[in-house]
């Protein structure tokens, strides 16, 4: 089993299969509401009894962690039927999958509203047998929403109530090279210029903050990568699906950690990173907003740079033959 991330001897983040999506507009936009409602229904169908803790932030609720009740379940479902959403409103469900992690964590479902976009996040026990089927079902829903970018894969989940410890994330990529350590709130300022607090330089462009086993590229990025679907379809171990509102790129037949100690092959990830390099995330935005955003700390700056460039750095380190097509 992958060990927890710890701080001062206490566990803070847990290994998980992660689904992170940033959607344009509101949770209750008619383009987003049906898919998000069905995604929550899938989560409840699979994990309702286990997800025994809730944190709701919308009228009638103040965001406190509470033991789930029949009334809270009803309120959670009703949230998706509302007509509008204000900034900061949302819903979170947690469970306690690990005996050694006493606080609420996995399985997790969350949606949250921001000014110009909304977030969806699911984090599930990494060894759960339902991961692949649920991922495919959620992928279908994301393809019908106003997806800007989304990612699925293994990584470490830091519960939102522990966000002050985000500076501890991004430290495991030396071993777990495909690990997804970000949260949606730390990457939106480099994903789009609209509503961004980043101080954009003239030559900077928005980009995608991570890639994984499945990577979703929204339509607004397509003009900068016009030939990527054709190019990636010609590569080994990679599949490409063109949905209504997103290009879905899958690296390999299952999610992996890219564990160096286990010798896991991440050449498919290298290949995806190479082809998506025209829409790479702006590093300066990463320094300002990822993992605590302490731009005066040289260690923080180096960690962000290493995280954002980890696939291409691994490619260079391990040899260009990693991008040579394998015999079919």
Keywords:
328 residues; alpha+beta; 11-stranded antiparallel β-sheet; 9 helices; disordered C terminus
What does this structure look like?
The chain is an alpha+beta fold. It has one domain. The chain has nine helices and eleven strands. Strands 1, 2, 3, 4, 5, 6, 7, 8, 9, 10 and 11 form an eleven-stranded antiparallel beta sheet that branches. β10 and β11 form a beta hairpin. α1 packs antiparallel against α3. The longest helix is centred in the N-terminal third of the chain and has 15 residues. The relative contact order is 0.14. The C terminus is likely disordered.
Shape estimate: globular
Percent helix, as a range, is 25-40%
Low-confidence stretches: 320-328
Total count of strands: 11
SSE topology:
Elements: E1 5-7, E2 10-24, H1 33-47, E3 53-57, E4 66-67, H2 70-79, E5 90-95, E6 105-113, E7 117-125, H3 131-142, E8 147-157, H4 188-191, E9 214-218, H5 228-233, E10 238-242, E11 246-251, H6 267-275, H7 283-289, H8 298-308, H9 310-318
Antiparallel strand pairs: 1-2, 2-7, 2-8, 3-4, 3-5, 5-6, 6-7, 8-9, 9-11, 10-11
Helix pairs in contact: 1-3, 6-9
